[in-house]
């Protein structure tokens, strides 16, 4: 649904050059919720502004719903009509909502409909329908100043849906909200994704957001995507940084005659009493150093850091047993030689 190939963006200001995007190739499948995560300055907002051509990329292409947007002339808010039309198929929501304080809730949702040239009656009907969809039917005549942050973001979402977009882009839409409101806005996005078949690309710096709603995720660093793929695949991939950050296990890597083992439970293995079986079958004392369990996409997954007596060489058999149980097993005290810098897991071309 969204494909970028080799997207770069170089900002030039006062003789200095900043490479905000450095060869970003991204593939978001129709109907998925895709999270892009990364530190401040990684290039996330630049990526989203290049996706809808609010900014023109320096090179590379952006295709949304089969249309090459980079082939259309213009950029920014005053783009020519073909680009503006293409853009009406892409909704956008923002961290600070960007509502007009002089207009009522309904007036804010009607704004893009005015630009699309709908009659007053059609605008009102559509706006009320959208407000109902986001659970704010009773707030149509209220001004934004009288709304909570979560309600403002719902108005922002209703406005973004005005042009019946197939794609919704979200730049840190929940970072100004408290955890509970965040959860309710995320579950609204998930509902819209399911009900309307909407493809959602969301940018966040919060791992919890990825855990709560994303089917796939990409990690950005210094303008590049360093890891990407379906969340369930990432969890099953030894060495995945996203998996580690999603499920930080904690627990020291104690030295000496001990072997520290990180195991990731996913799929069927989650329900099995693997640790007690290990302990019984090999008569070993297993210490649990840290663990994190959660639900991702409605399924239980988790990671656990355990410690076995003896060195890694002495534990080849119990470690093999864990692998046979379908768990992903890593020895964090024993970094693999020459691990690839870039882990590419997404089903490319899908
Ligand atoms: N208009 C601009 N002119 C010059 N440099 C810019 C411009 N916009 C962004 N940059 C630079 O590009 C880099 C990426 O910025 P960007 O806003 O995309 O980061 P981000 O990942 O969204 O960060 P944050 O999490 O803080 O929002 C930064 O080094 C930033 O200073
Ligand atoms: Mg940003």
UniProtKB/TrEMBL annotation:
The keyword Translocase applies. Residues 2-247 form the ABC transporter domain. One of its GO terms (molecular function) is ATP binding. It comes from the Bacteria. Keywords: Amino-acid transport, ATP-binding, Cell membrane, Membrane, Nucleotide-binding, Translocase, Transport. The keyword Cell membrane applies. Pfam families: ABC_tran (PF00005), NIL (PF09383). This is ATP-binding cassette domain-containing protein. It comes from Streptomyces litchfieldiae.
């Amino acid at each position: 649904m969204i494909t970028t190939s080799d997207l770069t963006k170089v900002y030039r200001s006062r003789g200095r050059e900043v490479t905000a995007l450095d060869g970003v190739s991204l593939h978001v499948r129709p109907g998925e919720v895709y999270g892009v995560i990364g530190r401040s300055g990684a290039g996330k907002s630049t990526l989203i502004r290049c996706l809808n051509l609010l900014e023109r990329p320096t090179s590379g292409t952006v295709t949304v719903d089969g249309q090459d947007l980079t082939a259309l002339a213009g950029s920014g808010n005053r783009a020519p009509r073909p680009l503006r039309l293409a853009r009406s198929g892409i909704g956008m929501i923002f961290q600070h909502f960007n509502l007009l304080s002089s207009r009522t809730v309904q007036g804010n949702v009607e704004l893009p409909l005015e630009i699309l040239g709908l009659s007053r009656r059609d605008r009102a009907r559509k706006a009320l329908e959208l407000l109902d969809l986001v659970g704010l039917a009773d707030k149509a005549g209220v001004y934004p100043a009288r709304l909570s942050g979560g309600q403002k973001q719902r108005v922002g979402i209703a406005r973004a849906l005005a042009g019946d977009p197939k794609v919704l882009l979200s730049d840190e839409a929940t970072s100004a909200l408290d955890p509970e409101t965040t959860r309710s806005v995320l579950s609204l996005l998930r509902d819209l994704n399911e009900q309307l078949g909407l493809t959602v690309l969301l940018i966040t710096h919060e791992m919890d957001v990825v855990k709560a709603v994303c089917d796939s995720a990409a990690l950005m660093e210094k303008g590049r995507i360093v890891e990407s793929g379906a969340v369930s695949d990432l969890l099953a991939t030894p060495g995945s940084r996203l998996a580690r950050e999603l499920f930080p296990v904690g627990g020291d890597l104690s030295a000496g005659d001990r072997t520290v083992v990180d195991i990731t439970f996913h799929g069927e293995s989650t329900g099995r009493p693997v640790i007690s079986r290990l302990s019984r079958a090999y008569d070993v004392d297993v210490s649990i150093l840290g663990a994190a369990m959660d639900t991702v996409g409605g399924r239980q997954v988790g990671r656990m850091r355990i410690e076995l007596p003896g060195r890694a060489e002495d534990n080849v058999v119990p470690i093999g047993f864990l692998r046979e149980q379908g768990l992903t097993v890593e020895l964090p005290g024993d970094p693999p030689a020459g691990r690839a810098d870039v882990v590419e897991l997404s089903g490319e071309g899908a």
